Amino acid sequence: MVLCSVTICYAQRYEGIAKTLSVRMFHNYRWTEWTRPEPTRVRLLVDVGRSRVIIYSKSPQIYTILSADSHYHDYTGGVKSECWEYQVIDQDDDIGTLVVRCGNKWMQIYIRFADIQWVYYLE
Question: What is the pLDDT of residue 79?
Answer without folding.
Answer: 80
